[in-house]
Amino acid sequence: MSVLRAAGPETAGGPAPDRAGSAAPGPARASGGAAAGARLRAYAARIVPPLVLLAIILTAWEAAVRVFDIPFYILPAPSRIAGVLAGDRALLLGEAAVTLGEVMLGFAIAFVVGVVLALAIFSSRTVERAVYPLVIASQTVPVFAIAPLLVVWFGYGTLSKIVMAALIVFFPIVVNTVDGLRAADPDMVNLLVILGAGPAEIVRRVRVPAALPFVFSGTRIAIATSVIGAVIGEWVGSTRGLGYLMIHANAQLHVDLVFAVIVYLSVMATALFWTVSFVEWTALPWRRAEAAAQAEWEA
Amino acid sequence: MAGGAAAALAGVLGAGGRTEAAAPGTPLTFMLDWFPNPDHVPLYAALGAGYFTQAGLIINLQVPANADDPLKLVAARKVDVAVNYESGVIFARAQGLPVRSIGLVVAQPLTTVMFLRSSGIRRPRDLAGRRVGFAVSGLEDAMIDQILRSDGVTKANVTLVNVGFDIVPALLSRKVDAVIGGYRNVERIQIEMQGQAVGMFEPERYGVPPFYELVLIAGDAAVGSRRDVLARFVRAAGRGLALTVAHPEEAFKHYIRLNPKLDDAFNRRSFEATLPAYARSQRQLRERWAAFSGWMAAQKVISSPVPADQLYANLAP
Fold first, then answer.
1. What's the rounded Cα separation, in Å, for the pair A97 and A103?
2. Are B44 and B255 in contact (CB under 8 A)?
3. Is A255 within 8 Å of chain B by CB?
4. What is the pLDDT of residue B3?
């Protein structure tokens, strides 16, 4: 994360305060109160459609279960799942905390290793030729198949789940970071070369800022899927976490609890995705300006 | 699992080939509890010897992806008869699934606590302070607790570790000191074939009421409306069991003919170890169902005991 913070202000225009970089171009600002209303409408336009769609899906689901008399052990109705979500709240929250911890640790490790590796791949053709194919190959390994082995290698504790989550996160981060580092504007690079900047300075001033949007894209995908890694790890060897709760509930035919766990996992993955988006929004102010300009253009 | 699916297909073809010439019978979907293994020899013997065909049944044999699936599929009437466990039937009933046991395959417990003799463990108390691995069955906590309590310790004295399906590697690699959920006719043989002597704490010898390991299950609706068909099925399965007990070699030949991939030393040894446990009669005892359901409730695995008459039906005693 320190990489992000170091890069932010410099590219936002050096000494200028952060806010200046983030502000939308002139005209939008001038309208004042109307702009606030417009922003509110923009938020509503973003939040309302998914909520309406979700409500439609849940209503159809509830109706289907009632009309076709589908037994709960085949498909529990949303109202029944909601009952479990409320009734087993403490249990679900406790196990969710365990899984979230594994996901965060796995993600942190994979992020650091992934970014360092991406820098190495970008800096050296030899490293790229040696490592890149292996990184891609690592993604073809079916995590579910090696999960039991990871458990034997790393033990039945938290470590094997962290490794599992990290394995899933690692690939999109490396690939996106490498792509991002290559995406810098060549004219800008040439300009810095002409001005006498060294390779390290070019990376710092041009390549890293250009790479950040790519890194965030990779991170968003990675963090949402890393939940799957942790859960698989918990299935094959654990006594804590949402994954364990899920197989335990399944063995006792608590099908509604299984679905409640799935709700938790979906909410967790979605929340992590949005968190990364929020961090990007905060850390890359010039992207906000670009997005605002884009929105205005479309309007 | 691919092997299991292929074997199931072989089973279906084997049964189908015989029925072609005969008069059309009643189609019946039959699901195992797990991929084919020596527990199922009597069922394959009944298939191979044509007992189901003679009973006017055309068997469509299926293998589940998960041991809990048969309970749900039978309850949802997607499958007519399935193999499952006494505890499975009780869990299902406690959750309101309309399934019950209609017959027996293995009439005594096979699951057990297992350890390497070289670990120095000799009695349940020796497990105190050690790591015990388990495969999730929903019952593992209750069983280990009962066994430990019989020797003056509790499950608080051991570290329980979920080892997924890898019971044998977990024990052999000494990641855990004992495992719960291994079968005395399967995992025990696998470990012995690795040259290790195995020690066991059989649950029924340490205070767990004796239970039926493998039962045949059907849905309440079918038990009401298709009683005759189900009774014919149970009688045919009973003939397979009788053939297996009386002529083990012949039964095993049917099993490996229908599952060619399972013709190996492990399956033969496991079958021999299972022989004493196969059900000798299709008469289920009310006391057994009541006692085990009561024990599960006492261990708080289910909230209250399920009345025994909801758990089984003797269709062909």
1. 10
2. yes
3. yes
4. 42
Kindly determine whether residue A152 and residue B72, on different chains, have CB atoms separated by under 8 Å: no
Note whether B147 and B204 are within 8 A (CB): no
Tokens 């003056």 sit on residue: B152
| Whole-complex ipTM | 0.73
B162 vs chain A: nearest CA distance in angstroms? 5
Fold adopted by A81-298: MetI-like fold (1.10.3720)
Domain locations in chain A as residue ranges = 24-70, 81-298
By Cβ distance, the residue of A151, A236, A253 closest to B91 is A253
Task: From A77, A164, A248, A204, select the one nearest B135 (Cα to Cα).
Answer: A248
Q: How far apart are CA A78 and CA A67, in angstroms?
A: 14
Domains annotated for chain B, with CATH where assigned, are: 2-106+212-310 (3.40.190.10), 111-205 (3.40.190.10)
What is the per-residue pLDDT across B174-205, written as a single tens digit (0 to 9) for each?
889 999 989 999 999 999 999 999 999 999 99
Nearest to B95 among A152, A235, A253 (CB): A253
The maximal CA–CA distance of chain B, rounded, in angstroms, is 64
| pTM for the predicted model, two decimal places | 0.78
Average pLDDT, chain B: 90
pLDDT band for A238, please (50, 70, 90 cuts): confident
For residue B167, the model assigns a pLDDT of 86
Six token digits for residue A74: 């085949």
